[in-house]
């Protein structure tokens, strides 16, 4: 429970030396200045005609906050409990691969920034630093591991999950919307693949099962092995159930958009869902997360946590997602741009700004505990299904 003191926020932000970009637009522009075109394009762009990329952001404005007044909002509790852990805010860092293309300190800088705020860092399978390196750099701050299933050998995935468990990670996020790579025209235009350049190899080149599955352990062989494995058209519910048996960590499925898949997740003993369209990078023309959320929340009926990402740009987006029933929200591109602009400090600044706007917006909505957002906010909700 923190006392909301608006004056502090103003004193902190309006200072002579504050030059960090404030809005998402400015942040994106500043990141573009810092990066080569191929790397920036890889981060910024979406699949196909980028319909989903655009709608991810515009969909949020379909929902309006209807605030209540004359409630005492001098205190605010933003903490959330997920899988037995209490986190200070409902924010998590979305798994984003190959962060060294944004900044040489990549995932380590991001994980350290997240640690300063107690925000769980979700590490991607295709990271520039290994599970163990991230754990070593960040001690016991909260960390989750995102798994891309390995298509040639299920044991590679089990091995990575075991390593994450041993390194103290608190949950496994299995991404289910990447059976193949989305059709990304910007990368074709720029002839750019960070995977081929080796930016995502750290967890593979340190994995004994992966290494023993490729003919030699040189760079080309490792990259070919990753390309052979990282997309996984054979992923199925049966494999998910097998993974469940191999770990004691909670498993979340990332990329769920249909309420029937949410129900199947519960039937198969899954511990949580992340409603996501991968930031519009996979199937273009797909429903936005915020539009898919209400029907999924209804289908899940409070049995397991429902998280959301894709298109979250500011604090009020977080408020809307929570009001529509999300338990927590993942931040994606905004933190990557913060990383590109100013490394760890840049990520911290982006997260702080989102958190501050979120807190002020919750208080201005007349609410002092997250759970009350659901009852007190009305939304002009179109039914997705
Ligand atoms: C550059 C980039 C790399 C990503 N890499 C991964 C990844 O390795 N694993 C994964 O599950 N999702 C990955 N994602 C998707 C994010 O986890 C998240 O779903 C997405 O960024 C949300 O959309 P937003 O950034 O527009 O808010 C990536 C997204 C971006 C922008």
TrEMBL record:
Residue stretches making up the FMN hydroxy acid dehydrogenase domain: 16-383
The entry's keywords: Oxidoreductase
InterPro entries on file: Aldolase_TIM (IPR013785), Alpha-hydoxy_acid_DH_FMN (IPR012133), FMN-dep_DH (IPR000262), FMN_HAD (IPR037396), FMN_hydac_DH_AS (IPR008259)
The protein's name: L-lactate oxidase
PROSITE patterns tied to this protein: FMN_HYDROXY_ACID_DH_1, FMN_HYDROXY_ACID_DH_2
Record has Oxidoreductase as a keyword: yes
Cofactor field: FMN
Reaction equations catalysed: (S)-lactate + O2 = pyruvate + H2O2
Family stated for the protein in its record: Belongs to the FMN-dependent alpha-hydroxy acid dehydrogenase family.
The keyword Oxidoreductase belongs to this UniProt entry's keyword annotation: yes
The organism's place on the tree of life at top rank: Bacteria
Entries under Pfam families matching the protein: FMN_dh
């Amino acid at each position: 429970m923190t006392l909301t003191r608006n004056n502090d926020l103003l004193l902190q932000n309006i200072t002579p030396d504050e030059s960090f970009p404030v809005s998402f637009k400015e942040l994106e522009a500043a990141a573009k200045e810092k990066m080569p075109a191929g790397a920036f394009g890889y981060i910024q762009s979406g699949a196909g005609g980028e319909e989903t990329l655009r709608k991810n952001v515009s969909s949020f404005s379909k929902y309006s906050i209807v605030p209540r007044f004359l409630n005492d909002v001098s205190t605010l509790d933003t903490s959330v409990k997920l899988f037995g852990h209490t986190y200070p805010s409902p924010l998590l860092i979305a798994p984003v691969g190959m962060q060294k293309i944004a900044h040489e300190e990549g995932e380590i800088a991001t994980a350290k920034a997240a640690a300063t705020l107690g925000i769980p860092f979700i590490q991607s399978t295709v990271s520039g630093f290994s599970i163990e390196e991230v754990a070593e750099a960040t001690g016991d701050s909260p960390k989750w591991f995102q798994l891309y299933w390995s298509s040639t050998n299920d044991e590679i995935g089990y091995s990575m999950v075991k390593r994450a468990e041993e390194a103290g990670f608190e949950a496994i996020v299995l991404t289910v919307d990447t059976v193949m790579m989305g059709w990304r025209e910007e990368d074709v235009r720029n002839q750019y693949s960070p995977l081929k350049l080796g930016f995502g190899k750290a967890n593979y080149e340190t994995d004994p099962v992966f290494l023993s599955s490729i003919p030699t352990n040189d760079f080309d062989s490792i990259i070919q092995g990753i390309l052979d494995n990282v997309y996984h058209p054979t992923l199925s519910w049966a494999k998910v159930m097998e993974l469940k048996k191999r770990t004691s960590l909670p498993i979340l499925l990332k990329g769920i958009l249909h309420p029937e898949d949410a129900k199947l997740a519960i039937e198969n003993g899954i511990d949580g869902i992340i409603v996501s369209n991968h930031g519009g990078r996979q199937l273009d023309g797909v429903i936005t997360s915020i539009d898919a959320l209400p029907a999924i929340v209804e289908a899940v009926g409070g049995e397991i946590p429902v998280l959301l990402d894709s298109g979250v740009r500011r604090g009020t987006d977080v408020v809307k997602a929570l009001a529509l029933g999300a338990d927590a929200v993942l931040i994606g591109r905004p933190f990557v741009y913060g990383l590109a602009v100013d490394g760890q400090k840049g990520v911290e600044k982006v997260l702080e700004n989102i958190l501050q706007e979120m807190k002020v917006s919750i208080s201005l909505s007349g609410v002092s505990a997250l759970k009350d957002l659901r009852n007190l906010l009305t939304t002009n909700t179109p039914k997705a299904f």
